[in-house]
Amino acid sequence: MATLTTHVLDTMNGCAAAGMTVALYRIDAGSATLLHQTVLNADGRTPDLAQAAAALTVGRYRLVFQVAAYFRARGVALPEPPFLDEVPVDFGIGEASGRYHVPLLTSPWAYSTYRGS
Question: How far apart are CA 87 and CA 105, in angstroms?
């Protein structure tokens, strides 16, 4: 079974993105199926995602981070529509027993991600 974790850092405020909503989807033939939705804890992590991800198999997946809603909840005035609203990160699981960590560094205007450890 693959292991999947994520961690989100708010680079505008220099803190973990506690309270941000994140959804996990499986992508099959261009269609996305919601597998799990959660809210980041005080450390910007999703402990319950690991349990939901325990059944992941080799294939294509997407994490969707609700960036605009998070920053609005923190009192940031964003235009309508916001520059970044939902940030989708598509990735592949190629090893059924692999460990996949997908961190996100974000502000209302930029983001970056990578395969972490």
Answer: 11
Segment 42-51 shows an average pLDDT of: 86
Per-residue model confidence (pLDDT) at position 106: 98
Nearest alpha carbon to residue 22 among 90, 88, 91: 88
Cβ atoms of 102 and 45 closer than 8 Å: no
Domain count, the chain: 1
Query: Distance between CA atoms of 61 and 57, rounded to whole angstroms?
Result: 10
The Cα 105–Cα 116 span in angstroms is 12
Tell me the per-residue pLDDT of 88-110, one tens digit each, with 9 for 90 and over.
999 999 988 888 999 999 999 99
| Exposed/middle/buried for residue 22 (C-beta within 10 Å: 0-12, 13-18, 19+) | buried
Domain around 105:
3-113
Task: Give the whole-angstrom CA distance, residue 23 versus residue 49.
Answer: 9
CATH number at residue 36: 2.60.40.180
Evaluate if residue 41 carries a pLDDT over 80.
yes
